[in-house]
Amino acid sequence: PEPLFPYRFFELFVEAIKTKDYKQRVQSVKKLVHQLPKPNHDTMKLLFRHLQKIITKASKNLMSTQSFGIVFGPTLLWPELDSGNMAVNMVYQNQIVELILTECTDIFGKVNK
């Protein structure tokens, strides 16, 4: 099965995370997230908001944003054909997940209660 980040988006997210300017990087990733198919977008929104709740208790559960990037980066997005350097891809995968976690409210909007 295809990952939560569809194959056709992998290189686009990698290019977005390479953007030097932080604000532009966030906006590029946000734009891509909003271009995802609705089921992927909605699942991602739910998952990342849930992970954010866990991160708020990092002092007890030892799961930081970086930890989740390491665990979920390679699980949520990977290239369809592994033609590149797996270690380099992993760095980008982790950074993409960390950025979405850090900027979750900006990317998905505020939580409606």
Radius of gyration: 14 Å
Percent of residues in β-strands: under 5%
Give the H and E element order. HHHHHHH
Structural class: mainly alpha
Average the pLDDT over all residues and give the rounded result. Answer: 91
Largest beta sheet, briefly? Answer: none
Count of helices?
Answer: 7
Q: Span from first to last CA?
A: 33 Å
Low-confidence regions: none
> What is the global morphology?
globular
Beta strand count = 0
Percent of residues in helices = 55-70%
Question: How does this model look, in words?
Answer:
The structure is a single chain. The protein is globular. Helix content is 69%, strand content 0%. With 113 residues, it is mainly α. The termini are far apart.
